[in-house]
Amino acid sequence: AWKHSSNEPSREVNGSRLISKLAAGLKPRYHFAGMGIHYERDPYRNHRVLLEAAQHVTRFIGLASVDNSDKEKWLYAFSIVPMRKMSRMELTAQPPNTSEFPYMEIIADLILEERASAEERNTSNGGQQYFFDMSEEVEDHVDRGGRRRKKYDDEGPSARQARVQQPCWFCLSNVDVEKYLVVSVGSHCYAAMPKGPLTDGHL
């Protein structure tokens, strides 16, 4: 759950891929987990910016064990307004520290395993075909050879810790987006001018 967040758990925790898949499908506003440690990651978005309608963010909160020796937080108090009592603007508001969806690679891995299992059954069943319905974003994580792209595979813990996520100045869902630098918005991409000193090729 920590991927793309600006902070990480204080120690490594083994998560559940099936729970990740469930969270991806349900898109809860709050996701509580008994991780044995306290960890509250940045809220993450449940839609693809510019490609899908804005949706509410998910806030993931891991709680430590009751009366733990490290005195980590094991209780979380909050008040939540029901969706039906919120306007769409309130519901889909994206906090400045909102991160990208963290489970995409996990979902891609699960689909690849299901595909491999189906192909094995296909061989034993005399050529019956199986089809998988993947979103474009999941498909982007799976190459044509049926293997997940190794974007993060070679990054060890030190590399992940060294990467600090800064606020996204060009993300249109960010309340602090610098729209004057956005040149054009299209169906699949948009052009933005670089931040920095003016150059000869600057528009």
Automatic annotation (TrEMBL):
Residues 159-203 form the Cwf19-like C-terminal domain. Pfam families: CwfJ_C_1. Coiled coil: none annotated. One of its GO terms (molecular function) is RNA lariat debranching enzyme activator activity. One of its GO terms (biological process) is mRNA splicing, via spliceosome. One of its GO terms (cellular component) is post-mRNA release spliceosomal complex. It comes from the Eukaryota. InterPro entries: Cwf19-like, Cwf19-like_C_dom-1. This is Cwf19-like protein C-terminal domain-containing protein.
